[in-house]
Amino acid sequence: PDEQLDLDDGRWEDIHVVTGALKLFLRELPEPLVPFSHFDKFIAAIKIQDPSLRGRCIRDLVLSLPPAHHDTMKVLFRHLCRVVEHKEENRMSVQSMAIVFGPTLLRPASEEASMAMHMVFQNQVVEHILNHYGYIFPD
């Protein structure tokens, strides 16, 4: 249904409502922003010890995403980078952002026992993309 949203409506003034809606939307997607087929590749890439190789690998993985995923990721991360620029006021550092969005944007197809182990790496991938946005998404 084409539901019209009035963003001037008072209930949207609380930033937690808006961010909660965004996280819920991303979590409810049939497939996460990083497709299941790419999950293990991103986890493997973030574990690469050599920083320049790791950086190239993650950039190439982002480039290999289907266009809708890639383009959405570009817009979302551009916005998240802008939020991080105001971390003094909003207390949303790169690390905080990664904790909030890591498990939502990257998740394995099946929730198995190694979930807690994955979470560290999921967060590191989001941190990496935030910290290297300009390299990963050159305009």
Characterization of this structure:
This is RHG27 protein. One of its GO terms (biological process) is signal transduction. GO terms for molecular function: GTPase activator activity. Keywords: GTPase activation. Pfam families: RhoGAP. The protein is mostly helical and 139 residues long. It has one domain (10-136): Orthogonal Bundle (Phosphatidylinositol 3-kinase, Chain A). 68% of the residues lie in helices and 0% in strands. The chain is built from 8 helices and no strands. It is globular and about 50 Å long. It starts with 14 loop residues before the first helix and ends with a helix. The model has no long low-confidence stretch (mean pLDDT 90).
**Roughly how much helix do the residues carry, as a percent range?**
55-70%
Rounded mean pLDDT score: 90
CATH superfamily (homologous) name: Rho GTPase activation protein
Give helix and strand order, one letter per element, not per position.
Answer: HHHHHHHH
The CATH topology turns out to be Phosphatidylinositol 3-kinase, Chain A
Q: Would you count the extended β strands for me?
A: 0
Organism: Mohoua ochrocephala
GO molecular function: GTPase activator activity
InterPro entries: Rho-GAP, Rho_GTPase_activation_prot, RhoGAP_dom
Protein name: RHG27 protein
